[in-house]
Amino acid sequence: MPIRVPKELPAIKVLEKENIFVMDEDRAMHQDIRPLQLLILNLMPKKDETEVQLLRLLSNTPLQINVDFLHMSSHRAKNTSKDHLKRFYHRFDEVQENYYDGLIITGAPVEQLPFEEVDYWPELSDIFKWSKTHVFSTFHICWGAQAGLYYHHKINKHQLAQKISGIYLHDVLDSAWSILKGFDDVFFAPHSRYTTVQKADIEATAELDILAESQEAGIFLVGNKNNRAFYAMGHLEYDRETLEQEFKRDLEKGIDPEVPAHYFPDNDQEKTPQLRWHMAASLLFSNWLNYAVYQNTPYDLTSLSKEQNQL
């Protein structure tokens, strides 16, 4: 089944070339079903690239999904045009009366700043608070995961000696979780970050479980035991070339980065990187939508506020 997005979103053309069925608003209006309502808070600099990456993964499900995009009105985007944001994105004040089955919060290139020094932290904190009463399940990615753990559980991030960048092997620690249904015992996933969260802090938090981790890269996936929040420290949504592009960008900035680990064949930067993580990516996102969201979300989303008020 398709994902429903604004009719003129540029990502549609890219996805249609990949034979991914994307339904525009006009056609979706003629389907008499209750689609999932999904909100994507896109904090990445190149928002159009992230749109394609996430929509590609969200399409791998038999569910119809209505997707809204959200940006931070308290932050000036430097790599996305004002026209694109105006046409395809909402401000928080425009959606705060809405209810959503699912929310995705992306990563952001601000991880070396203390959370409170990020210019849009007050607005993001308002969104975290709002999500408790207006969103059924939230999927946090990379810095978005660290920010979510900090806001909801007071778990802080810690600076690494050097950036983790590459494709790492991960172990599934608890296959009983539905979000990991169908996973092999091990899988590959990209990481690209300067900070980490400590395992002991997660283990000391009763509401959380560590679901997957890497011996090299550390924790990958954390789940709230009520299935209402997941925190992925890596970037399963990345394309084949994304780490290469980040590496070249850092070279141009004079950062002298390490070559992404286990990424280029024979560590040869002239060779095309192997794509080894998209099967896991598709499965993780489809499992989240199916088991954590669709099979548990209430038909009447306004009941989320009533439920929270009773706690």
Annotation keywords:
MetA_family, acyltransferase, twelve-stranded mixed beta sheet, 311 residues, alpha/beta, amino-acid biosynthesis, single chain, 11 helices, Rossmann fold, Homoserine O-acetyltransferase
Give the SSE order as H and E letters.
Answer: EHEHEHEHEHEHEHEEHEEEHHH
Q: What is the CATH domain class?
A: Alpha Beta
For the record, give the distance between the C-alpha atoms at the N and C termini, rounded to a whole number: 36 Å
- What are the segments in which pLDDT stays under 50 over at least 5 consecutive residues? 27-32
Q: Which radius of gyration do the C-alpha atoms yield?
A: 19 Å
Q: How many helices? A: 11
Specify the biggest β-sheet.
12 strands, mixed
Assigned CATH superfamily: Class I glutamine amidotransferase (GATase) domain
Strand content: 15-25%
Overall SS class: alpha/beta
**What would the average pLDDT be, to the nearest integer?**
90
Number of strands: 12
CATH fold descriptor: Rossmann fold
Which architecture would the CATH scheme give at its second level?
Answer: 3-Layer(aba) Sandwich
Write down the domain tally: 1
Q: What is the helix fraction of residues, given as a range?
A: 25-40%
The global form is: globular
